[in-house]
Design brief:
The chain has about 425 residues and is of the alpha+beta class. The protein is built from nine helices and 20 strands. The chain is elongated, with a radius of gyration of 26 Å.
Length: about 425
Amino acid sequence: MAVRPERVEDWFHLAPGLLSQDGWEISLARPLSTLSHCVSPWGGHLIKFAYQDITINDAPENTAGVIVRPEVRAWKHTTNPTPGSSFEVLNQLAPGDAVVKRWASWRLLRLCSVLFGDLAGHFMNYFFYDPSKQTELHQRVRRDYPERGDSACAFFDQSEPLEGILVCRPQEDPEKFLVTCILRVPEDKFANWAKIHYMMLLESGRRTAQWFLNRPGVSEMRSLDQQFYVVLAIQSFKRGMPQLPVQSPNPGDTVTRIDAGQRMGLTTWVRYHPGMAGSNKFYLSDYIQLFLENIGETAHTYNLLDSRQLVPYQCVVPREEWNRVRTRFFEAFTLQKTAYRRANGGSTAPGVHEGVEPRFLPDADLALLRERIKFAQQQPKIVVRNTFVEMDEEDDEEDDEEFKVERRNTRRPKTMSHLRVDCSVVVA
């Protein structure tokens, strides 16, 4: 059995046809809404709600920002609570990656509890129904994945059989989106007896999706989300690692002393090395954090942004924290330049710039996903008819272009996923 997914990328690796209809059994299809299900690759059952033409009012120009990061949602609930729901960040791991405590009273959840819940155990009350106490979830937001312009959020609970994913994909109309929500239930079965109620469930899900993406205050949250972090970058340290202020250097450190630092009490400097932060590679996030600590300031620094790895010479800092420490940081960093020139000679020294565009390391996950899809495409389709086995040899070369997941215009038509993998077995 496969390991359960904990990231958006994991979902697409385990089920490459996640957003297509290949491999899914459709239980109810309406012109713009579909309810389908399939066996989960890691056990249990997957239930998929897919909705086309979901209108998002004042949708952001960068559609990858449609889903708000959990830390921004928590800020909004703190400043302007929404009746009938609560949202709190318990542990912030990285931008867009947090353990949260939430409670919501939605009619959709109560309906799902009847159709898909485990009536014999506590699962129904925990997963679907309104719990008597708030529940904890780990949420991870990913942007521009699996295609540019996509916005996705995976959620799971480490102690309970609970995981799901929400994906928003732009369509041709600037305010229309394809919204897909997939939930896993632990039982490997589907409530066929309840099909008469699926129309009510599907319509309730559509109304919930429409409300959730246009709920009061969400436009303000999206605007805040765009400015919630500051991206920092360092450059010009080809003559060695930057300097670090210290009060008591360790034995063996090469010490540089500068009189210019007397006013701030920063006269003693040593060359930074990654081991000071417990790492074997240079990451700007480690250096900035240690630098701030050594000048008596604190701030959270990250080398990840929305589940993507930044290049080592960049990091992100919450804007509110950065505004608090930036003046003192730049005053001290000017002394760093003096110490660097003193230690190395010459006129060049490292500089830190703020508000730069983020740059990411090559996405190995995306390359792996592309290879898995390509491999699956090359497998012949097997059709079983009575006692005969037929091999489908239809030419799929024209699909190669469709399966590309390169950077592309965010406003292209996207009413169907391009991650289609057809390895189904049809029994006549």
